[in-house]
Write a structure and sequence with these properties.
The chain is α+β, with helices and mostly antiparallel strands. The protein contains 5 helices and 11 strands; from the N terminus they run αββββββαβββααββα. Helix content is about 25%, strand content about 40%. It is globular, with a radius of gyration of 18 Å.
């Protein structure tokens, strides 16, 4: 379970300076073979929590560490993804690659052209752009996107890019980088992504604390060798 949620969070397209604020974003996105997902992401000054609808699990970025929290048969288990990486062949990969998961994502952004038209999405005003891009299979595409300079989405985007770097060890995809450079974040991107709601409240502070100590994989391996 924790591999699936790690992969989904890392591969789904989402949305700059970082400010000590908080918020909550709910959106739908195409996650390739995992289908269309609805996700809610909440953040505070130092943490980002990601919940996927229908999964009794979530991801939590705290400082420089990412945790996967799952509940099975009433038992809460917390996994440190950095520990998984260190284990390498013993299960160290956080999840499948984007290609394996069937996710189509931008490899190159050719042009982003403002049309001069605006559209309101989830109560937020944005400007419509035509985006020319090449996907990870080499196919050239053009989509219509609604982009905004709303500071809450820019703040979320900065945290999400940090999450991607931490979980994958790679830079965010070129679309996110291009939007960051322009001071923009996505409200929609074709039929692949759409913001459903955005608020200024992150919820209870306890939701950003670990509900249990992380599993010690070293102890688990030692027990198996006894």
């Amino acid at each position: 379970m924790f591999r699936n949620i790690a992969a989904a969070c890392a591969l789904v397209l989402t949305p700059v300076s970082f400010a000590a604020a908080e918020g909550q974003l709910t959106y739908t996105a195409d996650a390739g073979k995992m289908g269309r997902m609805e996700m809610t992401e909440r953040w505070t000054a130092e943490a980002l929590r990601m919940d996927i609808e229908g999964m009794d699990a979530y991801m939590l970025l705290k400082g420089d560490e990412i945790y996967s929290v799952t509940v099975a048969s009433g038992q809460v288990m917390v996994f440190s993804l950095s520990q998984l990486k260190k284990m390498g062949g013993a299960g160290g990969n956080a999840g499948p690659s984007a290609d394996q998961a069937g996710v189509v994502f931008p490899e190159e952004i050719s042009k982003m052209r403002a049309t001069g038209e605006t559209r309101e999405v989830a109560g937020i005003e944005g400007e419509i752009y035509d985006v020319d891009w090449t996907d990870n299979s080499g196919t050239a595409r053009t989509v219509s996107a609604v982009l905004t300079d709303d500071p809450r989405l820019l703040e979320h985007q900065a945290l999400k890019m940090r999450f991607i770097r931490q979980i994958s060890g790679e830079a965010p995809n070129p679309l996110m980088t291009e939007m960051q450079d322009r001071g923009l974040a996505a409200l929609t991107f074709g039929d692949r992504f759409r913001v459903l709601s955005l608020t200024d409240e992150a919820g209870p502070a306890g939701d950003f604390e670990l509900p249990a100590a992380p599993v010690d994989f070293g102890d688990m391996m030692n027990m198996g060798n006894q």
